[in-house]
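Supplementary Note 3. Input sequence used for the single-chain structure prediction.
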Amino acid sequence: FKKYNSKHSEETSKRKQKFAVGYRSAKYCRLYEKFIVDDSLLAIPLLPSLFPILMQKNHCSKPVPLIVGGINASRGEFPHMAALGYDRGEWIDFLCGGTLISERYVLTAAHCAKTKWGLPIIVRLGTLNLIADVGQNVDVEDVIIHPGYSEPSCYNDIALVRMVEGLKMDKNLRPACLPPPTTLSGEPGNFLTATGWGRTGYGLFSSPNLQKVSLEVMDNRTCDRMFLGGRRTERLPTGIHSSMLCAAGYLDSSHDTCQGDSGGPLQTLSRHSKCMYDVIGITSFGKLCGTGLPAIYTRVSMYVHWIEDIVWPSPS
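The predicted structure, written as discrete structure tokens, is reproduced below.
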């Protein structure tokens, strides 16, 4: 009986672990790591072995240390970056960003599904320049908006874009990881990288080149005071919640995200998966770009359970 009880407890523990929040996304993140490395056979050596040697070639991009005030990203640096295209009649306009998180799903902001041009109809991946680079275009099958999102407020500003078919991934096109639900990466004082094709300054045009910028996370209380000044608005009727995070460039700099960066990632290199990024935040909204005021981001770690149930549903 003791032996059975011990075995039963062990199986129950394993079952609970498989259904724990963050388990599924971490499992798939490790699987996606394989696209960073190529296996290749070297020439057969004369001695001492008569067998070919398997050599692993690492395609991990090297991020340049550190979008308004940003600089151009390098090819392969953000292989998970997506652009969402909207039907403007005679042309497709890329108005929002997103993050590839699996073969078929892109993470973005809910308000990117509520534009005056309707839903996005296409996802463009594997590109740095939206004009010169065609990249890989995939039609949108569906957009799933978080049930807690309700305009005009910006709470729960998160959505998932499902593409019509799964992508064939490689070293230049692979997903980002979700952060652990208890991650500290979004803590005040941490520096994260924002990426997007948004406007390069208030009143200026969007950048055709993917931009990146380093931003510092600010504590929500300070952010609430700077952003709202004690007032409440339609967008933030009850202030800034824990499901949001704030980030800004240095007060004397123009570093910021701007219109057109919406839905794009605020990210950091993963502590758990080599050469992979964790998407910590989703660009939600701000005031005037590059004025030193913080921008608001959806805190992804608060939504891991919701994302997992859609992207990697558990077998019933």
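The chain has two domains: 2-58, 71-311. The CA atoms of residues 67 and 257 lie 5 Å apart.
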